[in-house]
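Fold this: DoxX family protein
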Amino acid sequence: MAILGKLGRYQNFGLLVMRIGLGAMMILHGKDKLMGGVDTWTDLGHAMGKLHIHFWPAFWGFMCAITETIGGLFCMLGLWFRLVCLLLVINFIVAALYHFTTIAEIKECAHAIELASTFFGLMFIGAGAYSVDKS
């Protein structure tokens, strides 16, 4: 299609738009979890039980909240982008496992699977030219 054929020149801008959109949503997702305190973190951390990790649920819940919040900010900036994407992939795989084994319906864990696959793909693509790292 000739009309959209020249959009390939703007790949880095497209990556910037994706990073800002996904990063902002991650910050909004994680901010409430982060501000929820130890009780919220403990509830989140119990999801690690699906991987047979039953110790320190508050720590794992805090790590989930911090990964989404600070990871979202770093995603927007393009700072340590591939590492952040890897941490978010792990985060959403655990979320998908938790939702699937608790509710047993694929549609209930679809959002986590979609985000895990998106961040997995972005891990290979990288942050693009418009990032703090510029790598």
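Residues 13-125 form one domain. The chain has five helices and no strands.
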